[in-house]
Amino acid sequence: MKLPALVPVLFMAYLTAGLARPKTIAVGLLFSLAILKGIQRGERIKWKDRNIEINERYITYAFWAAIGIIIYQVIRLGNVPLLHPAIRTSLNPRLTALTYFLGVPSSVYLFLRGRRYALIYPVAVSLYAYRTPVLVSAIALGSAYYENAKRAGKLELKKLAGLLAGGVALFLLITFLRGNTLASLWVRFQSTVSALDVIVWRGDWYGTYLGGLQWAGVTSYLQGGYSPRGLIAKFLYVHTGATITATLLGGMYLDFGVFAVAEGFLLGLYYGALSRATHPVTKAIYYSTLAYGVVGVETGILDLPVYLLFLAGAYLIHKGRKEMGEREAP
Questions:
Q1: Fewest CB within a 10 Å sphere: which of 64, 114, 230, 292?
Q2: CB 307 within 8 A of CB 218
Q3: Does residue 231 have a pLDDT over 50?
Q4: InterPro entries under this entry (predicted)?
Q5: How many angstroms separate the CA atoms of 99 and 94, rounded?
């Protein structure tokens, strides 16, 4: 099974394990099949990976800038959120987002280029006491190692297991330091599926926010206001200030109802096409967005930094197709 197929497979496994309602399972299955169809179609798209002309030193600067932002925020707070999780809400959201935007792809690129210090990033970002960026980083780095080492015939399962185990260890460390237990993770797991159940049950079949929810992923970063997960909480009549995740499908369904399958197809199309990347920069974007898709099975893809990475990948595919067309033109 190719790595992009993990997204729809894990999504259906998530719904099944969470005991989703039959209607939710049916909609989720259509959505997952659309992703798989998109992957198959994307793999047949012809494009030339010309890469983005970026000198490696600038990517190195981006990596250390991400580490520097983390250190700056810790110093500004006067304490480490990992040790005192309650203060993580005082982190500057724009700086935190910039950390993710710069840190994930730059660390993957440097890792692909053999710079082992790239593994500093998942450890450093764990200081924020948020679990999602740690999982994203571990999955992105693990995927990069797995595919490239396998292609070169140098795959070592111990190294792959070490990368993933390190990410899981950081995830569990954050969980326990935040006062959570494995049982509480299970409760969150089921509540996320339950939120999707309510969305599919109460939401309009043609969509409720009509694109406004996902667009809030842009506006909330730039000018404040409701975030996408805040709008999900509002729809579910949860008190003001709360945010709720509703799986990969939840935000799309609230926006476009059953037509969310079209977004699923486009997501698969993107992964299928970009999986043919050959240059390190393009690969770094591919593995970063793939990791966000895998983690997004639970959290959704609803944040501006992630949107920008997907746009960068889509631009590279478009650029490669255009160059192929110009080369083949008479």
A1: 114
A2: yes
A3: yes
A4: O_anti_polymase
A5: 9
Structure letter (DSSP) for residue 78: T
Name residue, tokens 């110093």: 75
Is-contact 62 106, C-beta < 8 A?
yes
Cα–Cα distance measured from residue 215 to residue 196, given in angstroms and rounded to the nearest whole number = 19
Closest listed residue to residue 156, CA positions, set 165, 146, 164: 146
Residue 136 to residue 267: CA distance in whole angstroms: 17
Rounded distance between C-alpha atoms, residue 20 and residue 282, angstroms: 36
Residue-level pLDDT at 325: 64
Residue spans of alpha helices (H) in the chain: 6-17, 22-42, 56-77, 93-112, 120-125, 131-151, 157-177, 182-202, 212-223, 228-235, 247-256, 260-274, 280-299, 304-328
Give Cα 182 to chain centroid, integer Å. Answer: 22
Q: Cα-Cα-Cα-Cα dihedral of 136, 139, 142, 148, to 10°? A: -90
Six token digits for residue 130: 């948020």
Cα-trace Rg, the chain? 20
CA distances from 43 to 15, 120, 253, 284 (A): 27, 33, 26, 18
Q: What is the pLDDT of residues 246-299, one digit of tens each?
A: 999 999 999 999 999 999 999 999 999 999 999 999 999 999 999 999 999 999
CA distance 235 to 222: 22
pLDDT in tens, 22-79: 999 999 999 999 999 999 999 999 998 876 778 889 999 999 999 999 999 999 999 9
Please state at what angle helix 93-112 crosses helix 212-223, rounded to 10 degrees. Answer: 100
Q: What is the pLDDT of residue 175?
A: 83
Mean predicted lDDT score pLDDT of the chain = 91
Q: Residue holding tokens 């997501």?
A: 267
- Structure token pair of residue 205: 């079949």
pLDDT, tens only, 145-167: 998 888 888 888 888 888 888 88
Per-residue tokens: 244: 């709720």
